[in-house]
Structure formats: C-alpha cells, structure tokens
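Run folding on both entries below.
>entry_1
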Amino acid sequence: MGSPAPGLAEQARAILVASGKGGVGKSNLSLNLAIAARALGRRVLLLDADVGLGNAEILAGVSASRHLADVLAGRCRLEEAVVPGPGGVDLLAGGHGLAELPPVDGLRWRHVLGQLAGRGWDLVVIDGGAGVGGAVRPQLLAARELLVVTTPEPTALADAYAVIKLVAARGGGAVPRLWVAVNQVQRPAEGETAFARLAGVCRRFLGVEPQLLGLVPLDPQVRVAVRRQVPLLLAAPQSPAARAVDAMARRLLDCPPPATGGLLAYLARLWPGRAARTG
C-alpha cells in the first residue's frame, strides 16, 4: 500500500511523553491524558512505545494478545494489535516481560508510525521509554511535540534536563515544542518552583523555553486507581489529580499543534529522504 494522504496523516497530532527516569508517573499520566482528550471529543490512540517494559496495558486493566513488539517484528499488522481501551481510547500496548524483543531502531519505528498515519485518529499519545538512550533516542530526536514528565525531586529534574538537552542539541527549527508536567507535587508553590528551576537552566544553557503544561498534585486516589487497574479519570474523576490532568488536556488541545507536528513529519525525521510506507 502506498503513502497515506498527507491531509489525514498531518491531522493526526503526535505528542511524545518522556521522562529522564522511571518512577515519575509518566505512563499513568499518558493514559489519563489520553482519556481526558477523548472525553473532549478527540479520537485518541495511546501508543505504548516502551517495548517489553510497557505499563499502559496493566494500568488500563486490559489484556492485549498482540503488542507493538509483534508489529515491529512483522508478526502482525497494526490493526490486529490495537485494542479498545478504557474511556473510549484505542490502545497499542508495548508488551511487558517479553522474552524476545525485536530491534527498535529508527527504521522499524518509522514503519509502525507509517501504518498509524491516516487511520483516523486526531491525537496519538506516545508513551515513550524513560531515559535518553537505546530505543528511546530515535523517538526523542523525531518528536515535534514533547511532554517531559518530572517530579520536584532534584534527581528527577536533572534527568528531565538531560532529555531536553538531547532534543535541544538539534538546534534551530528542529527543536520540538517542549511541554513540562510536574507530577506528585505536595503544594502548587513546590511545583512552580521546580518548573522555574528547570526552565531557568534550559533557558540559560540550552537556549530553549519549555512551557508548563500543568502541575499534578500528590493524590492518594492515584495509588488506589493503580491498584484497581482503573484509570484515575474513570475511578475518581473529581479527585485533585484527575482535575489537574483534565486541565492539562484542555490546555494542550487549546494550543494549535506545531506546523509540522503530524505523523508524516514525524516519520520524515525518523528516516529522512524516504517516503512513508503503510504496508
């Protein structure tokens, strides 16, 4: 099959959710952000790109017989691996505890996204792996819109800075739109101070200006929802953390996507000079 129609593919806004380290709530935020966007009328796919270590399937309380690893290895087509998720979100699970993992280089990742383009989603939330190396690196370098999740802890902020430093090294117009979410904050002032510190060093040493997407309070309902394997926005929609995620989704969707923020542009950056294929 040939390339998807540019109009359809470019309408599919792609945002990569990343973190410099594990344990900051990235996957949980990705899931609930996707559900919040769906509740606002968008057609949403949550793509768990942490192959072999993905948590979206567990957090969502669903069981997928096929995973992103199967698509990457050519064992099935994308539509065979996408399953209905909670809150009306579609889910492409990354797989967890898999004994055999395919290589996840830029070429294979581009092939998967080529199958995604033109499938009718308005928003693709890509839950990337933590860190800046291995399979995560090509995802980060291709992103045109990036949400970096951190906590107020100094180590988490330092690792978030490492993620931003990697993508900022591309320079010029290649630097993606940078959003930051500060998770697990005990009070607003703590989160605001943490963001100001991170934004300040990014401005001074990298010449980039991240934007604050939102602060998510430390909320006991989050842990309860995780244990129940029910997304927070469905388990406790009026909880402080759920309301914060809903506000983040509204802010994200109220902001027009980057001019080259669709899936085809993402594909071109993963493998420059080659046309996207959807077969």
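>entry_2
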Amino acid sequence: MAPARPDSDTRFQALATLAPVGIFSTDINGQCEYVNPRWCEIAGLSQAQALGRGWLNAIHPEDRMRVAEEWQHSTRTGQPFRAEYRFLSPGGRLTWVLGQAIVERRDGVALGYVGTITDITERLHTEATARAGEEMYRSLFQNSPISLWEEDFSAVKQFVDALHRTGVKDLRAHFAADRDCLRRCAALVRVKQVNKAAVTLPRAHDVDELFDSLDRLFSDETLDFFAEEVLALASGRTDFEGETIGLSLTGGRLELAIKLTILPGHESSWSKIGRAHV
C-alpha cells in the first residue's frame, strides 16, 4: 500500500518552515495568526510575540504608523498590501523588508490574509552604494579642470560601415579627396554631455551656447584630427590621442592635446566615447 499523502496543512507547515522568506497569515481583521521561523529570524520576535498586533512592534518606530495605516487600508478595502519598511530587532539590528500580502479566499469568501516579507537590506545597500558612486563620478566629471566630453559615435560607425559596403577600401585617401564627405561624417557625432571646463575653454557662456556653436569650433586642423580619430577606431583601436588646433567662439586659436577613448562595453557600436581636451 502506498504511504498516505500528507494533508495540505502539513505540507504548508513543511514548506513554510523551509522557506527562505518570511511567511505570515492573519484573520480578516488583520490580526496575525501565524508566522514562520524565517519571519521570526528577520523580525527578531518569537512566534508568540508576533501574534495579534504584536508584529507591529518589530517595525521601526519611524515606519510603524505608515505601515499600520497602509495595512488597515488593505484590510478595509480587500486590496493587496505591498510596502517597503524597516524592522528593528530588540538587539538593535536594522533590516529593510518588502512586505506583501493578498486576501485568502475559500468559495469566494474572504478568510484572511497570507503574505511574505523579503529581506531587501543588501539590495538597498547596493543601490545606495551605486548612487553614491554615480554622484561622486558626476562631481569629479563636472569639477575636473580638464575639458571632458561624452560623445556618441554610433552614427559615425554606421557611416563608415556604409562607405566600406560601397567599396571604399582606403578611408584616408577617400576623406582626403572628399572633404565634404568628411564634414558629413563629423556632423554625425552627437555630444551627450560636457563638464564646466569644456564650456569655458572655448569661451562659451553656457552649455546651450556651446552646443549651438559646435561647428564653429572646427578648424581645418581639427577636421584632419577627426579623420585620424575615425581611422584609428575603424582599424580596431579603442583609443587615440594627439595634438591639434581648435577655435574658440571668440575667434581665437586653441592648441589642444586630445585623448579619445571608447568606454568599456561600447566597442562594437562606438556609442559611448570619452574625450579629454587639455
């Protein structure tokens, strides 16, 4: 004879005990009736302490009223509950959780709520670290004394690829013989952002004036230098540096040392390129 299958309650208890997330259930009024061991581990309360409205004691005092109001709204309206909040254990351990719950029904009759809590502390820490790193990068970028540009060369690459498909084998000779083609190629560069030094170097009043006047910064030497950049990238290189002459918006000549680099992950598209002018 085959062994008897465990009933649904037994299976639920076994799964709840092993679950990596906190599991809880409440009555129709939102009074806690059950929490699993993982819930107790995250919250820092025993099962007995969590029952009724005891679970609210695990919530950080600054979050408690908000969570209670959102929970009461869900139990009053029958809508799913979802919120991010903090647990503060008696020992002082702070844990961020995502709490979720839905109505449990049988034959169309609402019996209560069943839900989970998931520890999201590490995820939020990672996100906060990433934001801090991004803020530091933005600060360094904007306040660098070196003129920094972020550019998109993806249309340039498409243009070069199209020239190759039409039979152009020697790009250098082609650009030298057809300066208009080279100018059309240069016009495809899209400047995504610049820092403060990039605005002041060519004597622009602000970013808008700089972006509206990019064509005025090109001298014949600058155009030749751009051709060398494109030739380097087309040959498979990911960086290029050299010196050239640019123009300021007041008509002066600028001696520039330039370093151009395709940023990692964009080698095949040329869609993110860093440029430094000294």
